[in-house]
Amino acid sequence: MKKFFGLIVAFAFGLMIILALRNMSGFPAYGDVNLAERISGSYFQSAIAELVGSANIVTSVVLGFRAFDTLGEVTVLFVSSLGVALILDFKHKKRMELAFKPNFMLKTASYILVSIILVVSFYMILHGHLSPGGGFPGGAMIASSVLLLYLADDQFRSKIQGFKILESAAGSLIVVIGLVGLVIGTAYFENFLNTGVIGNLLSAGIIPIIYVLIGLKVGSEIASVIDQFLTEEEKS
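Now predict its structure.
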């Protein structure tokens, strides 16, 4: 019954997203032949770097012109994580027993490697508006460090409640920042902060803040999925 309920909820969320997009007047119709021409004209004839303040042209498009679409991508990941949680969440569960027992050398080396992974991931997140990277790959790297600790330390168990709080807080702040742009400016996710000097770390207005929140949200959600898959129901 629980699995069926999780399937219904995931399907309802997906249907709601599709219907919401179809009813938006600004959303292009499927098969619009003038779509490519309209996109290229609006993106590349508007001096992207000066408007957004990002040295990375991909980030300028993704978070400068398509931030609402990026919010939809984050929502898709949230729905996926929710579906896994509804289907695999047991009332009494424990960490899944692995077939091998990691030794001292493996545990020590894994913690050193995790430290390096986290440093690189935060570098990618914080420099997403300057170079290739950003919140999505940085968040995936954070989750990979959790998976590594799961496999290398048989005593490790992620604090799932902490990940839930972090995911909820990051997701809520992303929505709030979008609303602030709508209230202060004229559009949802409008860049209401000073874009600064292109190429500097403290530039591009709200974009680095959104990337940090996306990185934390993606990392915590994927880590929660990992935790669900690597736990099992405790036998009474």
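The longest strand covers residues 93-95.
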